[in-house]
Structure formats: C-alpha cells, structure tokens
Amino acid sequence: MHHFFVTPDQVKDGYCFITGQDVEHIRRVLRMRPGDQIGIRDGISRNYIGELQTIGQEKIEVRILSEESKDSELPARIYLFQGLPKGDKMDWIIQKAVELGVYQIIPMETRRTVVKLDRKKEEAKLRRWNAISESAAKQSGRMIIPKVTEVVTFSQACVRAEAFDKSFIPYELAADMVDTRAALKELSAGMEIGIFIGAEGGFDIEEVEQAKASGIRPVTLGRRILRTETAGMAALSVLMFCLEETQA
Predict the structure, then answer these.
(1) Which domains does the chain show, CATH number per domain?
(2) Pairs from 10-13 (Cβ < 8 Å, separation ≥ 24)
(3) What is the pTM of this model?
(4) Long-range contacts of 50-54 (CB under 8 A, 24+ apart)
(5) Theoretical Cys-Cys bridge with 129: which of 148, 152, 186, 233, CB 3.0 to 4.6 Å?
C-alpha cells in the first residue's frame, strides 16, 4: 500500500484532502483511481487507511476508513550531526538514517570538511535532501518526516547539543568499550540525544576537546576505522536497539 503525509488540518470530518506534488504522483505516476486504498499519516501521531473518492487536478479527496494505533517512532529523539561528506554520500546517509529512526539530521561543517556550499547550492541540496527524507519516511513506515536542516558549523552544533539530555561523539581514541556500554545504559525514553559524525578524515583533536567541554561524550564504535557513511549508521543502529528495548 502506498503511504502519503498530510498535515493535521487536511484531515476533517472523516475525510482527508491531499494537495501539492502528491496529487501529480497519484494521478500520473501511480495511476490510481477512485476506490483505491492508501495509507495516510498526519506527521504527528495519527495513521489512517483511506479510500480515494475524487481525483482532481490540484486536490484529491480521500474517505477515512480506519485509524491505526501503531506507532513506529522511537521513544527518544535522535539528532544526527553529520559532517558534510564528498560526492552523493549524504543522499545515502539521509535515507538510511531515516529508516533507522533519526528525528532530525543537521549537516555540519568541520575543520576537515572538504565540501563547501554557497547559499544557492545549499538551498538546492536541502530541497533534494528533504525529498529523500520524505521518500524514506514513507517507505519505512515512519509517523513523521525527519527534517534536514540548514548547514551549521561545528561550534554551532556543540552549542545546540548543550540542551540535549545526552550527546555522543564517536572517536578512534575514545576509551574502551566498557565506558561506551556504560554510557548507553544511561539512555531512556523521552530523551533528546545528539550523535556527532565527522566527514572524511574524522574530527580534529581540538574539536573533540571542544565537544567534551560542551558535555558531548566521546565513545568508541570498535577497533576498526569506519567511513563517515558507515559510522553514523553503526551509531544509530546501536542507539535504536537500546531505545527499542525501553518500549518492550
């Protein structure tokens, strides 16, 4: 079944009205017809099954058949501060991070970041990245579409992380796995958690010290050196596993 996101005000009195780019997708790409069923999520907490009623040029009317109570979100919010990687790696990182349950993705410039985006390029990238996030959210059954924010500096990221309950920075010189396991045991439902991933080349030692001064805890992901696109997924997978346990 195909799924689509709407805003809560698009659902009223047993009906939902779909507008925007999804109209063209339903009409021309999927070639759906009245009577076909779709999944609808309001981007907050509600998940519906609906039946297409009328398919117009700019608006589609959907009759709500049922409401599903299943909640696919993690019990805590994870914020991925991702050092800007080279090439199209960011596309893959966003897709997989959304599948793993990330709440928000914050692209980040670090000392070893090679990619530099001017305002025009950044705006184009953000449109693409958020479209990838939406597609991944639909595919993976998310209740929300994780936002990909504007690019921030490492210093700005550290300041923001100070407001979180826990934040971690995987670092090859971090303490052994015992300390990392102890840190993970401190996680619980309702927390806001930041995870910092460097671009190619990792973090500069001064950045790690700056992170520690902001309360961001160095952790290890094992004895192997991971690529930037692998490190984030490894960290998110571990966090997802720990947090899913709190829901059991």
Answers:
(1) 3-68 (2.40.240.20), 77-245 (3.40.1280.10)
(2) 10/42, 11/40, 11/42, 11/46, 11/48, 11/64
(3) 0.84
(4) 50/16, 52/26, 53/15
(5) 148
